[in-house]
């Protein structure tokens, strides 16, 4: 078992305010985190600061690899000089399909844009709402399931204790780091994550980071 580091380096300036405290907890409680966190101490979760873009990126990233999602997003975002909900509604469907989006994802992005332009969302209240209330509001939008809503909680609102059990990368990372590559169930993942609480977001980020050459971002 690797020794507990006496002192972890300070996290980068963009890290959420709770990051250092979370890392300190995780290296004490979890053997895998004890190994991973020092490897990536110069990096941390980072918000893009725009709720529409965060949700749109999550829709584009559904059911595809991080690499594929990044390439599609790059082509899609190049269609606009300013990626706002109103501008997305001005795009032609053929152009969006040409960027690599499926017909279904085009529909989802249009519905998302309409929710923003028609003020159907409580954007100003999100900071005060609890995680489950936000998930309930977001999953009322076409194409946004629990996974996408959880990505929003992590990457836009920076909520500290989100455990996205529907995320294939999280399950793969837990399989590789805790079960020698054997398949894991959601129940297995939940059991592993008991040691992560109340910082499941942070542990999830490090699991993702262990799998990809670049930090995951939405």
UniProtKB/TrEMBL annotation:
Belongs to the alkylbase DNA glycosidase AlkA family. Residues 60-212 form the HhH-GPD domain. It comes from the Bacteria. One of its GO terms (biological process) is base-excision repair, AP site formation. This is DNA-3-methyladenine glycosylase II. One of its GO terms (molecular function) is DNA-3-methyladenine glycosylase activity. GO terms for cellular component: protein-DNA complex. Its EC number is 3.2.2.21. It holds the Pfam family HhH-GPD. SUPFAM superfamilies: DNA-glycosylase (SSF48150). It comes from Comamonas kerstersii. Keywords: DNA damage, DNA repair. InterPro entries: Alkylbase_DNA_Glycosylase/TA, DNA_glycosylase, HhH-GPD_domain. Gene3D superfamilies: 1.10.1670.40, Hypothetical protein, domain 2. It is an enzyme of class 3 (hydrolase). It catalyses: Hydrolysis of alkylated DNA, releasing 3-methyladenine, 3-methylguanine, 7-methylguanine and 7-methyladenine.
